[in-house]
Write a structure and sequence with these properties.
This protein has helices at 2-28, 33-36, 38-55, 108-114, 127-141, 166-174, 215-240, 248-260, 262-269; strands spanning 57-62, 72-76, 94-99, 118-120, 145-147, 178-183, 199-205. By secondary structure, it is α/β, with parallel strands linked by helices. Residues 72-186 form the Phospholipid/glycerol acyltransferase domain. One of its GO terms (molecular function) is 1-acylglycerol-3-phosphate O-acyltransferase activity.
Amino acid sequence: MLALRSHLFNVIFYANLILWMVVCLPIYFFLPRRTAYRIPKTWALSCHWLMKVVVGTTFEIEGLENIPKSGYILAPKHQSFWDTYALLPWLDDPVFILKRELMMIPVFGWYAAKLKMIPVNRGGKGKEMMLVMKRASEEMKNGRQLIIFPEGTRRPPGAEPVYKFGIARLYRDLKVPVVPVAVHAGLFWPRRSLMRYPGHYKIRILPAIEPGLKPSVFFETLIFDLEAASDKLLLDAADTNPGLPLPPEAVARIEALQRHAPSVMHENSL
């Protein structure tokens, strides 16, 4: 039954994506950019509704009050495709740095270009990266929110973190707050898997790290804050979803936390 619901969700999810993109295409490009952004935001809400109705997965967001009013960098954990669209309805005017190849995909690339996403050649250096930084700076001055996954790619829940120092360079050069976001959607929508699991989990938006720190100090602070919050949410997800199949990395991490800091488990359950 679970496999059937998972496959049903996957079919409806991608059909819903195609339907939104095709149906809205005639009007999307005639709208002002910020008005046009309502279309992907509403699509994201429809995806959350589908997860709830078809799979039985729900979530809650903690810490919305920590989101700054002006331009900032949002730095979420990245475990699932879900992470790429989940927070869109709660963000004012977000912008992503995308691989240039994605901008060449028909329809999707047109949508991304309309929203002024920032393309980057990942193999590029020097002048290429200077242009990306210039575009990012311009968007920040316009009050937009730059979404960066600090680990660069999807990682299994509980896996040893591998953060990329690039976010520290952005923090230094853009001089805007960085808002870490802890989430374990990968427990319910695993990477490289067609399975989708029912349950409930939390997204925790942490207090912003204000500009002005040395890049190395910022980098250490980001990792410490985000990993500490992620550990607590992992324990919480495992405790409140006892039937959830956990990946081996999550099992190992929970066991390590219970061995070395059993009080954290007790505190998290209060």
